[in-house]
């Protein structure tokens, strides 16, 4: 029986850790997809104008080069490398200097940026004054609300054509203050913004189910918060740039739970892992597996202690061994600190309430602007 216990211990450890890695990968992919989606409209619209501008510059350059080449040919000029280079340089200067063949269109045609890129002043149809109005954009987007110095300022509603909608506060053409953002994929954010990005406290509903409620910095989950997943698992603790990092508590979908330290989305450092079958491991972790010194306690009360390597007991040691004892104590301390982390529910609730008020004010401003 005693010889089978380490084998069972290693089996449960590896099985649970593989589930934990799979959950971590799913969450990380979902977080990255969310972040890239929220920034996608800035990149897609700016790249559209870049492609158009590039085409307008290349075509006349080729055309003029061909014309000069034909001129040299019919004038019986020798087709030397020197003449060809001069022809190309002349064509380039003509296009650059005199803007030949370029249509007369504004370089600052309407774009919409959610990121930290300057959003240009709208130049399309609509009716506005220095206080309120309606602005229609070539890509199908529209804004109804308050203006100041030609930019969205105050309260207003922005409709992303067939994509989503933002209702809330604006400063210099960007989301700034509180508001609500909804997208066709099912993503919804309620909370605080700064310079066009989620910043402060807020709640985000993910498009595949689940949500996050907590702190944000520059459009990314950062700080303390609660992440609930569609499979029923949840994490309460600290994040760094979108991944679990620091102290935290994780409840797995299979009933397992972990409290302790995280690094880059994985259990790393010291902590305690309680298995759904009643087993428990206390000690050191590295990249999601037991690594270092620790103690494994079975449901019947028996223990196995020693040095671990990749989730398997490498060297049995007494529970009173200094290294084992220290790791167990560090694991218990980290678990206690993770469980006692200050919660942010109150700050999140206040931010959501402020976002709802700002969204209501934005809808009122939109109605007034439409009647203007």
From TrEMBL:
Q: Which InterPro entries match?
A: MORN
Keywords from the named record: Kinase, Membrane, Repeat, Transferase, Transmembrane, Transmembrane helix
Example GO molecular function: kinase activity
Q: Name one GO cellular component term.
A: membrane
* Recorded superkingdom: Eukaryota
TM spans, by residue? 54-74, 80-98
One Pfam match, given by its short name, reads MORN
**PANTHER family, alphabetized:** HISTONE H3 K4-SPECIFIC METHYLTRANSFERASE SET7_9 FAMILY PROTEIN (PTHR23084:SF176), PHOSPHATIDYLINOSITOL-4-PHOSPHATE 5-KINASE RELATED (PTHR23084)
Query: What name is this protein filed under?
Result: Phosphatidylinositol 4-phosphate 5-kinase 1
**Organism classification:** Eukaryota, Viridiplantae, Streptophyta, Embryophyta, Tracheophyta
